[in-house]
Amino acid sequence: MLRLMLVLCALFAIHVAEGSERKEGDFVARDFTFRSGETMAALRLHYTTLGTPQRDAQGRVTNAVMLLHGTGGSGQQFFRPQFADVLFAKGGLLDPAKYYVILPDSIGHGKSSKPSDGLRTKFPRYDYDDMVAGQHALLTKGLGVDRLKLILGTSMGCMHAFVWGEIHPDFAEALMPMACQPVEIAGRNRMWRKMIMDAITNDPDWKGGAYKAQPTRALRTAAGILVLAAGAPIQMQKAYPTRVAADAYLDKTIAERIAELDANDLLYQVASSRTYDPSPRLEAITARVMWINFADDFVNPPELKIAEREAARLKRGTFLLMPASEETRGHGSHTWAVLWKDRLAELLGP
């Protein structure tokens, strides 16, 4: 979720291992059926890849890993220096010279099909299971991948990783979910999401989704909530230690985010978590799991003790709560690879 909710997805410099191939493309899933029963004749699933697939004697890809982004983000978030410079660099843990790295834009996000393409509120009401189904179609039908070495997911992608582990238990050898809980979204986590959805749908300028200009009052409320949800208290206090500095940052950041947001896209993105609840079937996950949460995460507060309870049900799982420090970044710690790269190395093995 920072990219939970960094609903702002600016393009950052790309720092990857020299010689690695970076490709973007679209796979079109024909006659895609959503869990709601709605269908799309052509669902566009955008993706970026790094590296080259390696195949065994049977032609199966053996070196694929998939990285799943957070709410409002896209695969491009993983090219931020704090992630790419650490993991995609030559000799890094996810060096494209070794791995075939797949970065999908989930349904409703990035360059994949989404309400703002034209359907607006006639776009199917997708949920997390639909998004995972889209990722599965992209891998198997679009890229010819039927086995992954790793699924690493951040925030919403973290939740997708748990769904993957249950629905497709033999697909990935290892899962690294970061910054989420494998339970129904309730309590404060649900409340701030509902506040965003209500702000949009109650804004007269939303016009039932048929607006010609963005409903900026609603987006201002949403952007402010997202600043708090994704924020890191220690970092924010250090960076903005006075009232004047804090106010200036907030005004600038909200204005920037409003300029990047589409109200219908955001509404659908936040609402897509409504049916999520993998908790009844956690024992079905057979992959190795390295699950990390962060103590300064507003979205997944550690005092709830949910993670410790649910982690005990994982057959091959390890849970780590990373304490808050001068280095952690709240919910967005999931993208600062220096904080947890040693745990990824442990999961990947020799």
Structural notes for this entry:
α2 (128-142) crosses α3 (156-167) and α4 packs antiparallel against α5. The protein has helices at residues 81-87, 128-142, 156-167, 187-201, 216-230, 233-239, 243-260, 263-271, 306-311, 341-348, and strands spanning 22-33, 39-50, 64-68, 100-104, 150-154, 174-178, 288-294, 317-322. With 350 residues, it is an alpha/beta fold. The protein has two domains: 22-184 and 279-348, 3-Layer(aba) Sandwich (Rossmann fold), CATH 3.40.50.1820; 187-271, Rna Polymerase Sigma Factor, Chain: A (Orthogonal Bundle), CATH 1.10.1740. It has an eight-stranded mixed β-sheet, with helices on both faces.
Shape annotation = globular
CATH topology of the largest domain: Rossmann fold
Rg, nearest Å? 19 Å
Strand content: 15-25%
Unreliable sequence segments:
1-15
Decide which structural class fits the backbone: alpha/beta
Give the C-level CATH assignment of the largest domain.
Alpha Beta
Give the H and E element order.
EEEHEHEHEHHHHHEHEH
Task: Summarize model confidence as the mean pLDDT.
Answer: 94
Cα end-to-end separation:
30 Å
Taking the sheet with the most strands, its summary is:
8 strands, mixed
Q: Which descriptors apply to this entry?
A:
alpha/beta, 2 domains, 8 strands, globular, Rna Polymerase Sigma Factor, Chain: A, 350 residues, single chain
